[in-house]
Amino acid sequence: MQNKTNSLRENVFEYVTKKYNSQIEHLWAKYPGDAIFRNNENKKWYGIVMDVSYSKLGIQKDGIVDVLNVKIDDFILKDLLIQQDGIFNAYHMKICKWISVLLDGSVDINQIYHLIDLSYSAVQTKPQKTRR
Q: What whole-number distance in Å separates Cα of residue 106 and Cα of residue 123?
């Protein structure tokens, strides 16, 4: 099994905790390494970190990698993103709106933070329209 000491998992957790005051939730006893974070207002998920085997992502490499799934509502942007190294159609989520990002250093941490911000925006409660 791969050594995951280069994982950016803790950087992601620190970012969402500080910027969005999100709690890191471990929901599944069977998968103690998996964690979600959600919008505090509406409780919608905007990210999940999971341990995934490279092979499940279609990568011909042995071992396990940490991935971050984030929501991307812009289909054109999503299609551009999945052409980049380290970014894939979402593993274990609705692939039309989510992407998986490797947390092994193949994607720059600042880009990961930007993707988290986009995901947070995608799940924010939209303001109610006032009737005239």
A: 26
